[in-house]
Amino acid sequence: MENNKIGNYRWVICGLLFFGTTINYLDRQVLSLLHPILEEEFGWTNSDYGMITSIFQLSYAFFMLLAGRFVDKLGTKKGYAIALVVWSLGAIIHAYAIPIGEASVQFLGILGFGGLSISVTGFIVARLVLGMGESANFPAAIKATAEYFPKKERALATGIFNSGSNVGAILAPLTVPWLAHYYGWQSTFVIIGSLGFLWLVIWLIFYDKPEEQKRLSKEEYTYIQSDTVYDIHPVDEKKEKISWLKLLKFKQTWSYTIAKFLTDGVWWFFLFWLPSYLKNQFNLSGSEITLPLSVLYTMTMVGSIGGGWLPMYFMNKNTSPYDGRMRAMLIIAFIPLSVFLVQPLSDISYWIPVLLIGLAASAHQAWSANVYTTVSDMFPKAATASVTGIGGMAGGIGGALFSFIVGKTFDYYMATDNLNFGYTLVFSVCAVAYLIAWAIMKLLVPKIKIIKIEEIRD
């Protein structure tokens, strides 16, 4: 009843962020599902595919650092819109990877570089553009959440919009194999990549800053601005200029950044390598992987939303937002230990690894919903996208290194006819990453200290 009096337009914004994130992940997931087809057509090795995915992650990482600043300067509405146009075009040009590769190889030859095949080069260029655009999704979404939600609701809102990544991952195996079968892999990239332009129209119509939003009631606006207990930033932050160098001086920045570096690669592995895992370990491909992947990524939706709810349980017991989040994240960090059992139990049925990996992936999304929100717990709104971008860059670099090493590891153990051990090594790293990350975060920021705007002003 109270919410009805206040109004619920902030949840409309959360819905917009949810669908934007769904499209974001749907676009990046197409390649992993087409990997078996492209691998056979172009003769790729695991190292080739690892290099292609690493370039996406490096591009994502580098531009995420810039994206945070970009969104802070242009504002959420314009920044998100421009990013979506770039990543949608990046998704579409995958269809033209071969002519792009031919032109790029020629150009690299003139410069004295070479060695990569036309297909690998073409997909690297396409992934680079995709990563450039997609890098702004989370800085923009986190900033929008900080603008439209009081702190006690931000983890839940983040968990809901972040679950769009799971929906995108679910929709991909339901649609991509079918589209590829009937229309070919090139048309699949074009069709999926074009969806973003539909969302763009809705975004431009319904999103404005809260103070300019005509659809927002005065009561809801007051509620959004009601962080009287923890809000120590009474200054007007709309036009504040934030110094990156000053941000890097704070342990709070490094706490978030290291956590992203250590754990993002696990999610990238689950996202980009699972179709290949099901093919190599269980000889599943095409439409055969649709059901197990759909079940796995459906599980991650529960983790994303549940992870947003868990810290609220502690906050309702008068725990500060940061302390409540850290308690929730410690519980979540134990769940990925389940993947230690993936290879030992894989002989029983492929459903055992699928469910165990699904449990770990669900924990990652629960972790992600909270680690993102620690930024708005510790920093003023004017710095939220910038800090998110710094951490996102670290996460992308960590993911790129992990993906590159995974490709080399699988090729090495495949050559020695011991690929099972290669998977055991990789899953072991995934299992312990979160506990290590949590321990470092707690060591760096044992107690909450909120950074004041004047401490980071440029």
UniProtKB/TrEMBL annotation:
Superkingdom classification of source: Bacteria
TM helices/strands, residue ranges: 7-26, 49-68, 80-101, 107-130, 155-176, 182-206, 254-274, 294-314, 326-342, 348-370, 382-405, 425-445
GO MF terms held by the record: hexuronate transmembrane transporter activity
Domain Major facilitator superfamily (MFS) profile: 13-449
Transmembrane helix in keyword set: yes
Subcellular localization, as worded in the UniProt entry: Membrane
Record-linked InterPro entries: MFS (IPR011701), MFS_dom (IPR020846), MFS_Na/Anion_cotransporter (IPR050382), MFS_trans_sf (IPR036259), Sugar_P_transporter (IPR000849)
GO cellular component: membrane
Keyword field: Membrane, Transmembrane, Transmembrane helix
Membrane topology classification: Multi-pass membrane protein
Protein name (database record): Hexuronate transporter
Organism: Chishuiella changwenlii
